[in-house]
From TrEMBL:
Coiled coil: none
Top-level taxon of the source organism: Eukaryota
Domain Fe2OG dioxygenase: 177-282
PROSITE patterns associated with the record: FE2OG_OXY
Family affiliation: Belongs to the iron/ascorbate-dependent oxidoreductase family.
SUPFAM superfamilies: Clavaminate synthase-like (SSF51197)
Gene Ontology MF: a single term: dioxygenase activity
Gene that encodes the chain: LOC102661081
UniProt name for this protein: Fe2OG dioxygenase domain-containing protein
Signal peptide range: none
Keywords recorded for this protein, A-Z: Iron, Metal-binding, Oxidoreductase
Length: 331
């Protein structure tokens, strides 16, 4: 592996069972101003269920490649993403994409739902019945439970930005969210930054917040100052039962850069690694414009307003392979 000195990052830990909301707000605010990353514990999802979700994730990725390609991701980003499908850091990933495979699960909306024709809504792309019994039910339950964790975190973020606690709970925001669960499997390659080889290239997340559950294999790294030369990378230690939460670019934009999204990447160390990312964004038609508490005469809005779906569509298109590539391969 390319020699780059790293150390473990000391992240704040937010306890969702803590009755002292002010303490949680202060810890979160400090984390958002410092690294944009923090742990969330006592979130209400049992350790037993977490382990079941990881076990079911491994079952999916253990399927033959041909079986997984039957549910290749569609235009709405639902389904399987093969190894090298995603290219997060084109400047440094000179030859290939990320050495990871994934599976996207969104908010389920049937084809008879008037919302299902929108880019990030619609039916999911599930394995055929009988391939993985009970699998869909497990993932749907985890999707629902993680959404509640995300909403609880969003309340604390709102308070940290001097907004009403229920600011993000409005119908046009997290009332009808674009919430995407993504199962991830890193196959065990050894990354080498000097050769542009990564489990996941350096990137910031697109949306509001990301909640990440990991196994006990390390690999996640963060860079608090993306403009530093050379960049300094810190390891984020796995914490059993916790979610690692980070802020996305949309929240940076919304908060007028008061809170910043943080550059992060995954380096493979030769061990297989599984993680589950939950990307929480506001509704499709939400207008993301500078929050009233984050602007002033001396600090005007830095970004023009933009609709959530326009912003996300562009970001996904920038980082994923054209689906026509796979159609040619299968022809």
């Amino acid at each position: 592996m390319g020699k780059q000195s790293t150390e473990f990052s000391a992240l704040n830990c937010i306890d969702l069972s803590n009755p002292d909301i002010n303490q949680s707000v202060n810890l979160l605010k400090q984390a958002c101003l410092d690294s944009g990353f923090f742990y969330v514990v006592n979130h209400g999802i049992s350790q037993e269920f977490m382990e079941e979700v990881f076990a079911q994730s491994k079952k999916f990725f253990s399927l033959p490649h041909k079986e997984k390609m039957k549910i290749l991701r569609n235009e709405k980003h639902r389904g399987y993403t093969p190894v090298l499908d995603e290219l997060l850091d084109p400047e440094n990933q000179v030859h290939v994409g990320d050495y990871k495979e994934g599976y996207y699960i969104g908010v389920e909306k049937g084809e008879d739902d008037p919302e299902s024709n929108k880019p990030f809504y619609g039916p999911n792309n599930w394995p055929a019945p009988g391939v993985l019994p009970g699998w869909r039910e497990t993932m749907e339950k985890f999707h629902r439970e993680t959404l509640e964790v995300g909403k609880a975190v969003a309340k604390i973020i709102a308070l940290a930005l001097d907004l009403d606690a229920n600011f993000f709970d409005q119908p046009e925001m997290l009332g009808e969210p674009i919430a995407t669960l993504r199962l991830l499997h890193y196959e065990g390659q050894v990354s080498d930054p000097l050769k542009g080889l990564y489990g996941a290239g350096a990137h910031t997340d697109y949306g509001l917040i990301t909640l990440l559950a990991t196994d006990d294999v390390s690999g996640l790294q963060i860079c608090k100052d993306r403009d530093a030369k050379p960049q300094k990378w810190e390891d984020v230690a796995p914490l059993k039962g916790a979610f690692i939460v980070n802020l996305g670019d949309m929240l940076e934009r919304w908060s007028n850069c008061v809170f910043k999204s943080t550059l992060h990447r995954v380096l493979g160390n030769g061990q297989g690694r599984y993680s589950i990312a939950y990307f929480l964004e506001p509704s499709h038609d939400c207008l993301v414009e500078c929050l009233p508490t984050c602007k002033s005469d001396s600090n005007p809005p830095k970004f023009p307003p933009i609709l959530c779906h326009d912003y996300l569509t562009q970001r996904y298109n920038d980082t994923h392979a054209d689906l026509n590539v796979y159609k040619k391969q299968q022809a």
